[in-house]
Write a structure and sequence with these properties.
Elements lengths: L1 H27 L3 H13 L6 H4 L15 E4 L2 E6 L6 E3 L13 E3 L4 E4 L12 E3 L4 E4 L13 E3 L4 E4 L11 E3 L4 E5 L19 E3 L31 H34 L3 H12 L3 H13 L21 H5 L2 E8 L2 E7 L5 E7 L7 H12 L9 E6 L4 E6 L6 H6 L11 H21 L15 E6 L2 E6 L11 H4 L8 H4 L7 H16 L18 H9 L10 H4 L5 H14 L10 H18 L1
Parallel strand pairs: 2-4, 3-5, 4-6, 5-7, 6-8, 7-9, 8-10, 9-11, 11-12
Antiparallel strand pairs: 1-2, 13-14, 14-15, 15-17, 16-17, 18-19
Amino acid sequence: MSLVFNISFCYVILLFVSLNMVLCIEIEEFYPQERDALMLIRDSLNSSVNLHGNWTGPPCIDNQSRWLGITCSNWHVVQIVLVEVNLSGYLPLTFLQNITFLNQLDLRSNELFGPLPSLKNLMFLQQALLSFNHFSGSIPVEYVELPSVQVLELQENYLDGQIPPFDQPSLSSFNVSYNHLSGKIPETSVLQRFPESSFDNNSDLCGKPLDKLCPVEPPAPAPAPFPAPPPGVIPPSPAVKKHKKLQVWIIALISVAAAVVLLSLIIIAFLFPKRRASEKEATRNDSANYVFGAWAKRMAANSDVSERLGQLEFSNKKLPVFDLDDLLRASAEVLGRGNLGITYKATLESGTVVAVKRLSHMNEVSKKEFLHQMQLLGQMKHEHLVEIISFYYSEEQKLVIYELISDGTLFELLHEGRGMGRIPLDWTTRLTIIKDIAKGLAFLHHSLPSHKVPHANLKSSNVLIHQDSKGYHSKLTDYGFLPLLPIRKNAEKLAIKRSPEFVKGKKLTNKADVYCFGIIMLEIITGKIPGQIIGEIEETTNNDLSDWVRTVVNNDWSTDILDLEILAEREGHDAMLKLTELALECTDMTPEKRPKMSLVLMRIEEIEQMKKEND
């Protein structure tokens, strides 16, 4: 009896302690003002990730957080990292004012509009990474007062106005390139130690470290002294002066009124027929979307007529010819943003719709090199390549105009909208897409034998999808830019950066494309996103998808690697695993052991035929 009592007593004590712990957690569970600030972001913006489903409950439990992109320390939010998650909308200006322990804010490569957020009172903020968005307006002067800031990246936005006089000794990385900033770069000791590339592509910016000198403003002339009256002449009294001034004003007003009436009669009599045309032209010029039109208008004003778009040798003959003036009047919307630049959907006044890619990181490319490469790529005609229609070159801007493929990307088709209500992407469709990509890539390798890596930027977000009554069709885009990126640092912006030979600094060949194609095949087969499998695999070379697949199969082929959407299909598992085996050959660590694309295509067609026979 006493034993039962003792056990019961222990349970009561444990329950009491547990309840106290829960109460303590409830009391100390989180700082509501920090949660409310994050909720403001969640409810104000759209995203490709489900923040509404993930950002629930307290953001911090001691040093842990289950919220996507949030890092905590001692119950406080200390890092917000939401990179390339398609955040879109206007960022609430003061949402950070209560997250006072924040040391890193990373919102790079999204679709955020409006002014830059206020960073006031963020005494511990070390990194503010807001580049590759659509922020506009001026850089807040309060940024100068951030005492701990080390990294400030604001490049590739639409910021205007002058650069504040940053002089924080802690600031070690600074970039405001590719904006619309103007005026003289402040001559603070901190700003002057950054390279020219930190300020590039702001056409109205001047002063060191740029080569562009600021115009010298002449001093204002001193007012001439009023001559003294001759001897014996009595200066008029103030009342007389006032009366004379009034007479002069009356005469002047009458003269101006008469001139205005006369001018109006002339305009009505002779220029009225042109009024409608002028109004129409003004409306066209003012209707350009700011995101596209602001820099396009500046580009047109600064370019020679000989550089403007025109009918090129490889222009699509089915499309009406257009030039830069037509382009800058086009309404536009952002389709996407990648490491090579921003892509817009542009609707010309004629009704023609095209995709316009505004290239970044190509300032060192000469006009001759650019024209040669674009003319070469423009000759590439294949059903599985996005066609290049035209292009534009100036020192400040470089554009490539493509046919518009408007049904999204392979990445979106595979990964967006997962969950209830999604229509599964069946195996037959996936195999067709894989074959389409292989055809396009094999054609590039055959047509560009002189290019060491003909595509160089092959990834699922650069496979565009078109859907019609017969199903899905795919086309490759962003191909052929490696020759325009001779510097390794710039080449790191391409998909080939994941290949083992690039990581090790070895010679690149077209087998780097084969590696990237193998990764895409595995992405289609497994449904997993390359580079986002941390925690599912230990000790891999570069944490890539191929390493995970190799670890799972471990010479014992299993359907565990298959995407659940195709695992549910009763037929086709053998073909799926054979294709997986081919993908692993394509992603071999040794480039020489990878098959050529012509052979890869042949084997895919054999697997497709085997599937048809089994069906």
